[in-house]
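Components:
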Amino acid sequence: MPKKLLLIQAFFKKEFIIYRRYLLNSLGGMITLYVVFLLLLGGFQGLRTLTGVEGDTVEGLVVGYVLWFFMLSTYQDVSYALRNEAKEGTLEQLYMSVHGIGWVMGAKVVAAFFINLMLVAVLLMAALVTTGVTVNVDLFSLFPLVVGTLLGSVGIGFAIGGITLVLKRIDSYTQMVQFLLIALVAAPAGRVMWIRFLPCSYGSNLIAQVMVGGQHITQLGLGNVTAMLFIGIGHLGLGYGVYKLCERKAMVQGTLGHY
Amino acid sequence: MIRVESLVKTYPSRKGKPPIKAVDDISFSVAAGELLGLLGPNGAGKTTTVKMLCGLIRPNSGQIVIDGKDLTQRRIAALSKVSAVLEGNRNIYWRLTARENLEFFAALKGLNPAHVRGDIDHYLELFNLTEKANVEARKLSRGMQQKLAIAVALISQSRVVLLDEPTLGLDVQASYEIRQLLKEIVHDQGRTVILTTHDMNVVQDTCQRVIIVNEGRIVADDSVHDLLDLFRVRVYKITIQGVLTPCQRASLLDMEQVIIKEESPERTSISVRLEESQVLYGVIGILGSNNSLIESIDQEQNNFERVFLEIVEGGTQGA
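Structure:
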């Protein structure tokens, strides 16, 4: 098996073990997510404001919420993880990996993404069975759009994580990022051209076109999808660049593993 | 295996404090299979040096080459040869079991955990952790956590192992066990080990060679044996029966090399630093002037703690 896959597998196993070992805490998160899905499927429009997603359909609400959930979790998987590893004393070990810190954090994000994906799928299914509601979601169109959108939130995670390495305790500011993510999802990228260049905005706009407009990915235009992916990769690169700059500063100051 | 040349590290000024020169132009090399002790008082630059060897702190200038690979230019290739325990028992995941930690860190070093299962069992056994293999690290004793952290460093099969204070905070038994394990690692596996410590028993018991740093500079670099020898020949303890006369006392105290250590009506002990043989004749002459009966002349038992203090406090240049 390629070494990078082994790394993802190792993080997958580690995350899963911790999830299982702290079952009570994990159950609390699962119940919350399940209740949110019940409210969404029951047509509770209040959550529309919370997630900032466009569209009035149940499918739109569900996908909007799931998108925001994944954006938040991928952002936290990078920025919070860097802070926590430094706090626990294991960050230096991650730095000494033969894979390099970028791949290590990437593997962590991918592993956590798939765990969350499984969790969301199971809980959504349970909520659908409970409510008797059916949703028609074009997963084939959505999956690449969601992945492209999440590149931006991973980039934000790297940038914030890097700043945390240098400035240390900035928790109150990092919490604000979740509201920034809502604003980015809700920003009118369809109407205002420059907003498309903001992290996650173009992707969420294309997702809305699929969910609300009922379009298939092929109808969005190859140029639009490619542009969204490139913008996502650009934000990931930019975030990683900020991270590397901060990392360099922390290495000069000798504070890399401190918290 | 490791070559360090003209390494300099100055921490930039922060919050109005002046810059701190932590490492000041140090050079040394470590051969494959060597167990080197890096010693020095607090703030001497030991941890900074080790962290630079791990690629975690960026030097201002100088070069670090590990197994022929320049750490600055080929970071990942150079670090593939290195593993480290830097934060003692904090280098492991406390929520994972001993076995899960070993499996995870093997993957982090590019190994397939399934392929190193035998190695994992071997290290669990070597470190007396087999019975605790499935116990979460946070539930292990501090000594066991420390042993697990070292096992995690070894599972990567890296040729160089860096240990920052591996016995810090351990009880006598756990410290002894770790010392024995370190010797085994070097002797049986031919790994290169660099350790920093304040525990001179660890140095005397395990290290073949020591580098002593003070204020960022190397003040001694020699084998433990040679350093002990260098200082051992200089100190003698002369014990006489009875007490010194005031005249003898005054004459002895005039000599810089003499310390009157113990005095009782029965016997008196005098410590003589023997920098030249004339000093000893001078002391014996003073004692003979009142026919004091010399009971014994002993070479004082030297230990590495004394050597260390002599070097650091005296600024003596070793070999």
